[in-house]
Amino acid sequence: MRDINRRDFMKTVVIGGAALGLGSAVFNKPLEALAGGKYDIGECKSVNVTAVSELGWYDDKLILKQLKAHGLRNSQWTGAWDPRNAAGSCSLIDVELLDGSHHKFLLDTGWHKWYMDQAFKREGVDKMLKNGEIEFLMITHEHLDHFFALETTLKYNPEIKMIIPSTFYPEGMHFLNGATFNKCHAENRIAHQGELVKLKLGTINKLYPGVAAVNFDCRPIVRIRGEESIFVNVKDKGMVLITGCCHQNTITFANFAKDKIKGGDNMYGIYGGLHIAPFGPINKDREFIIKEMGKYNFKKIACNHCTGLAAVERMVELGYPLVKGTARYGSRSKLFVGNGDQVFFG
Ligand SMILES: [Fe+2]
Ligand SMILES: [Fe+2]
To answer: Is the pLDDT of residue 305 over 70?
Structure first.
């Protein structure tokens, strides 16, 4: 197929909207550095994030007790997690490019299948998956609260393109292909049938003009490796950081933008779980991270999920520009962006 024809073909497929698994996301090879050592990911017009669900689980004390009993270094796939305590983390990202076109993708798919299905129906994600409007599902990392409800996405679109860290463990790959792990109550009866893209550690992968993903090397609890996070360069506004749990920590995340991405020294916002004191009080290390965050001059901080309430309250005390929520559908406070809430960067 000659180039021009191929382009036209892709355009038709995209406009038709029925291109399950094809979508219009551009997956370039990892970007090459500019002469100055930075990477140019381009610019987009805006990004809107819907917290489809940010509540990982209902009861902190129960999961903490189970984590300690299981052993923090042991695999999540052998833990006897209580399914009655399961909820899940999932965000819907809507990027507007400079040409006015919109592109949607999902960041994670949550934990409990029924719970996530209710959240999908409430936010219209079920229909968007069915009609091919959602171009891909990115699993930020393998943790149960982000990944175990994979079947809920696949039942609406088994051919959806998926992007995962190349550092997935064999159990995660097995699950993706359709498997049940009885002990940890993880069941996926639908094999993924679409394109699978694996992001190598540390490389900058352009998803759309102005949008890139990086798989950060980190080893959070219950034997996980790597977390993918997103950089969005919004024209005339600055850099937006989007993350699932931010196990790499917010400072590493922000510094990566500042040091390696063109425009990353002008920070605009951050969205997602910031993994600061998820279960409890703020110790010295966490206080340090919260204080350091102040140096980046974020205009909007939209945190939730594993950002503990004590950490959120500390940010309020420090006068940080927190985006507030509505505390609906199980979210615990109006101080942060909760289930069904949206935040617009543009
Ligand atoms: Fe999480
Ligand atoms: Fe996590």
So the answer is: yes
CA distances from 345 to 47, 194, 205, 218, 262 (A): 5, 30, 21, 27, 18
Q: Which pLDDT score is estimated for 29? A: 67
User: Per the domain annotation, does 324 fall within a domain?
Assistant: yes
Above 60 in pLDDT, residue 247?
yes
Whole-number Å distance, alpha carbon 230 to ligand 1 midpoint, is 16
Which CATH number does the domain housing residue 107 bear? 3.60.15.10
- Would you say residue 112 has pLDDT above 70? yes
* Model pTM score: 0.92
Residue 189, in any domain of the structure: yes
Mean local confidence (pLDDT), 289-309:
97
Distance CA 90, CA 242 (A): 12
Average pLDDT over residues 263-283: 95
Cα 326 to averaged position of ligand 2 atoms, centre (Å): 24
Residue 242 buriedness (CB in 10 A; 0-12 / 13-18 / 19+):
buried
10 pLDDT above the threshold of 60? no
Domain limits at 81? 27-345
Neighbours of ion ligand 2 (CB under 5 A): 143, 245
- 246 alpha carbon to ligand 2 midpoint, in Å? 8
- At CA 267, angle to CA 163 and CA 276, rounded to 5? 70
Examine residue 12 and state whether it is found in any structural domain, yes or no. Answer: no
Give a yes or no: residue 79 inside a domain: yes
Q: How many domains does the chain have?
A: 1
- For residue 47, the CA-to-ligand 2 centroid distance in Å is 23
